[in-house]
Every structure is written in C-alpha cells, then in structure tokens.
Amino acid sequence: MPDALVAAEGLTKQFGPFEAVRGIDFRVERGEAFGFLGPNGAGKSSTMRMIACVSPITGGSLRVLGQDPATHGSELRGRLGVVPQEDNLDTELSVWDNLIVYGRYFDLPRALLRERAEELLEFMQLTERRNDRVDPLSGGMKRRLTIARALINEPELLLLDEPTTGLDPQARHLLWERLYRLKSAGVTLILTTHYMDEAEQLCDRLVIMDRGQIVGEGSPRQLIGEYCTRDVVELRFAGIDGLERAQKMAYDRGERVEVLPDRLLVYSDDGEATTEALAHHGLEPLSVLVRRSTLEDVFLTLTGRTLED
Amino acid sequence: MSTLTMRYVEREARVFARLWRGSVFSSFVAPALMLGALGIGLGSLINERNDGVEGLTYIQFVAPGLLAATVMNVAVNECMWPVMGGHKWSRQYHAMVAAPLTPASVYHGVVTWAGVRVAMSAAAFLLVAALLGGVKSPWGVLAFPAAILTGLAFAAMMAAFSITQDDDLKFPLIVRLGVQPLFLLSGTFFPVRELPRGIRWMVWLSPLWHGVELCRAACLGEFHPTRAFINIAVLVVFVAVGAHWGRATFARRLAS
User: Fold this and answer.
1) A74–B3: do the CB atoms touch at under 8 Å?
2) 8 A C-beta contact, residue B59 and residue B42
3) Cβ–Cβ gap B14/A101 under 8 Å
4) What's residue A2's pLDDT?
5) Whole-prediction pTM value?
6) Is the predicted pLDDT of residue B232 greater than 80, yes or no?
7) Which residues belong to CATH 3.30.70.790 in chain A?
8) The pLDDT of residue A45
C-alpha cells in the first residue's frame, strides 16, 4: 500500500519524562477525511505537530507523503496546509497581506498568489474584509482566514487542529460546510477534535485517542456499531433509590449502564422497549430521553470518561 | 543568504512599510538630537576649556561613539520584545515554521532584518554627523560597515537569548545592567583612559567598545591595522557565537 499520505507505526512523542504519544499506528489514504477524536491532553495535537513536520518524532516511524519528515521537513511542509489550534494570523498585516505574505513563505510568485488570494477570499466569504486588519475580525472569520491561508499553496493534505473550538454554532456550521466542500473537491483532511458531532459530520474514518494511545478505530458508523447499542436511554432520578432500581432493572434485561454524576445511561437495542419496561417496574424518572448512540457513547464505553472531562 | 531567510526579511519589510512612522523618532530623530546636544551644546564648553578631546573637537570625538551606541540600541530593541513576541504573543514564528521556513532560517531572518534596520539608522546618523562636522575624514564612509558589524554582534546574541524567554521580565534588567553601562563606559562619551585603572581592561570585553574603536578609526581616517583587526575579529566572534547559539535556541523553541 504505497499510496498512504501518512503512515505511522509505533509512533511516540516524549517531552522530558512525559510521554504525550505512546506508540500509535495509523494510515491516512488520499482523499479521505481522517479524524483524531479525544479529550484535551490525549496527545492529538502532539501527533498533529509531528504529521505537520514541525515536531521531531521521539520513536517509531512516520512517513508523510511517502517521505521522512526528519530529512525532508521543509520540502514536505511546502506541500501541507496547517490550521493550528491557536490562531497565529499576522496581526500587523491586513487580511489580504496575510495571504500574500504567507504565500511568499512557499516561494510562490506574487502574480499567482494574487490570483489565489482572490479566489480564497471569495471561497471563505471574506472578500469584503480584504483591506481590514485582522484584529477586529470575529472568531469565525479569523478561523476562515487561517484556513484560506493554509490553502494558499494548494496543499495535498490539510491539517486542522481543533478547527471549530471556541466558535459559536453558526460559525461552526459555516466552517463545516466549507470543509465539506474542500473534501468533495478531493482535498485530504486530517483533523483533531474533542467534539463528537464534528467527528461525525466530517470524518470518513477516525481513531479515538486517550492518554497518548489509540483505543478505537473505524468510521463513525462502525465504531458505534462495534462498541455501542443502537439507542441510549438517558434517565434522571430525584433520589438514589430510583437510580439503583433502574440500574438493577437494566442489568436484569442484559443492558449495560453508565452512571454519570447527573444521569444514568442505559444502552439498549430498543429504547422504546426499555422505557416501557421502566413503567412496568413502576419506576418514575424525572426525565426520560431516548436517543441514538453517538461517538461520545463510544468514547465513554472505551475509556469510562466523557470527552469534556 | 538562503531564500527562506529572504522570505522572512520580506515579511518584515512589508510590516515596516506600514508601521515605519512609529520608529522614526527612536531610530532617527533621537540619535540626531543626542548628537546635536552633546556634540554642539556640551561640545562648545569642552572645546573652550580643554581644547577638545585628544586633539579633536568634541563632536569629532563623540559622533563615532554615538553611532556605535545607536546601532547597539536599534539592534537590541529589534531583537528583544519582537523576538519574544514572535514566539509567545503573535506566534508568527510558529506560522512560519509550519510553512517551509526552518527555525534556523527564522533566526537568520531576524538577525538580517536587524542588520537592515541598523543600516538605515547608521546611514541617517552618519549623514547628520557629517553635516554637523562630526566626521573628520572621507574614510568615514567605512564607519557604515563598521556600524553594521557592531549592530549584528548585538542582534545575533540578543535574538538567541530572547527566544528562550517566556515573559519579558529580564529585558528591562538587561537594558539597565547591560546596555546602559556599555553605553556609558565603552569610550562613547569620554576616552577609556579616564576610567579608573583597575577596570579599564574590562572594556576589552565590551563589544560596543570594539565597535566604537572601529567607527572612530574610520571617522578620523586613522587606522591602526592590528587594533582594527582585533576589533573586527572580536565582533565577528560575537556574531558567530550568537549565530551558533541562536540556531539552537530557535530550534528548541520552534520545533519541539
């Protein structure tokens, strides 16, 4: 399989005594959207920085676009687009100059950059702000400009570290829609996120990371099918008594439960049947919510913790 | 000079084209005022009482000293807060090394751009000094490259250090305990032999003194080959050591 854009085997990253990435294997194929899902501190960003050919690997092996980042770093970075977690736009320059100056780092001719900058501002809906400074832009606009900047060299691989963290829902949806278009246009995406809805929306395939290791891998559907039931019934009770009885009931029905601080999750292949059984047992929760399983539930199953921890 | 380094310089030039007005006073006007006030104001007194300094009018003595001191200030300022900011505040350096620039090319770019700013200030200063009668010999044009070398010696060391800092607490200290004493005691305003005998040798450690000596030799057109060679060698060593150190500190901070 020589076609993988990124291939890692036993990849590790250590900062002093701290092991941020502890031996992970993964492959990213051309044209797919690949995600690293996990809570903060899982090692996602460290992994991204190694894929971005910025941070040297500590152990294992890593190939990016078929080459070794240790020996071809600068050249490889010329073929990547990077959207970092913390915005680092050039606040001393205008929106337009941000694109042109950044493009010059790739040694591209100015005439070509002007053409691309025009298109990218259009694509990211920033044309009207082209002469403005960066500071007054909204969070969503800054992020869009950062993505536009990352596309100025027409990268073969676009890396996005927590692309929508800190954005309001409307800005997130606009961004997802733009990323979806890029994906349709054949750009390979790698992204990290701790939002399961983002992973479900954008990723063809993803790995779940926890404490520097990969604990699950597959498409969102596969992961849910493999580690979860179809439905989840969320129950809230007034007292501990109801909660314990519901727990026992689920246990008797062969259903798995997770107890969270404020609610009880019952994993059920048929949510309706579970709620009917509750009434049967005379249980009266404060609230009952039947929903489909998500990646959040997969994460909880695999690690015993929630993503927002 | 690699292409990548030039890309860094290009960015700085773009920003400077936008913001140059803010630096006019500190880089050009203030040094010229200083030269006028000392060379002509204080100078008239010194010339009357003492018949000048070492056979020179005071402005002829002090102009090359102030030239070297000015480029030191420009270089240090250019490589202090802006360097820390590129890493910690605006994080521009991180944006650059995500592109094909390497940490070493960023460092080289920082020092090169500081050299450009130093050259601008030195040219302006020399022009004003010449107009005010502070440049005795036509060899004074050689004070221009001498000033650039002096500036680079400070820029190379300062940038290498600044990138290691997580906050700016040490910068005022460096100015007060490093830059200011050098400024006052490196043969800038008065000859070194006026210093107490016990500490006179210490000027040999001061890169500024070597810069002042070179600039002064050029402005007077009186070169002593061995001394000039030593002055140049010391400044080159500062640049080389700074560069070696800077490539390491930039790599550690930008590619970890």
Assistant:
1) no
2) no
3) yes
4) 57
5) 0.93
6) yes
7) 229-292
8) 94
Give buried/exposed letters for B226-246 (b at 16+ CB in 10 A, else e).
eebeebbebbeebbeebbebb
| Residues β-bridged to residue A191 | A35, A160
Domain boundaries, chain B: 3-254
Report chain B's C-alpha Rg in angstroms: 19
A150, closest residue in chain B (CA to CA): B99
Per run of 10 residues, the mean pLDDT along chain A (length 309 residues) is 86 96 97 93 95 97 97 97 94 96 97 98 96 94 96 96 91 92 93 90 94 95 92 91 90 90 91 91 91 90 79
- Note the pLDDT of residue A309: 57
Tell me, what DSSP letter sits at residue A296?
Answer: H
Q: Which CATH class is domain A6-224?
A: alpha beta
According to DSSP H, which parts of chain A are helical? Answer: 44-51, 69-77, 95-104, 110-123, 139-150, 169-184, 196-202, 220-227, 240-252, 271-280, 295-303
**In this complex, which of B95, B100, B255 lies closest to A56 when CB atoms are compared?**
B255
B65 touches B187 (CB < 8 A): yes
Does the CB of B22 have a partner CB in chain A at under 8 Å? no
Q: What is the pLDDT of residues A165-219, one digit of tens each?
A: 888 999 999 999 999 999 999 899 999 998 888 998 899 999 999 999 999 999 9
CA distance B41 to chain A (A): 40
Q: Is B91 helix (H, G, I), strand (E, B) or coil?
A: coil
Tell me the β-bridge partners of A36.
A192, A207
- CB contact, 8 Å: B164 with chain A? no
Beta strands A231-236 and A213-218, pairing class: unpaired
Best interface-test mutation with B: which of A64, A88, A100, A142 has the largest number of B CBs within 10 A? A88
> Which positions in chain B touch A106 (Cβ < 8 Å)?
99-100
As a CATH number, domain A229-292 is 3.30.70.790
Residue B1's pLDDT band, with cuts at 50, 70 and 90, is low
Alpha-carbon gap, residue B209 to B154, rounded angstroms:
12
The percentage of chain B sitting over the pLDDT mark of 90, rounded to a whole number, equals 86
Using CA atoms, how far residue B190 sits from A218, B34, B140, B199, B227, in Å, is 76, 15, 20, 15, 19
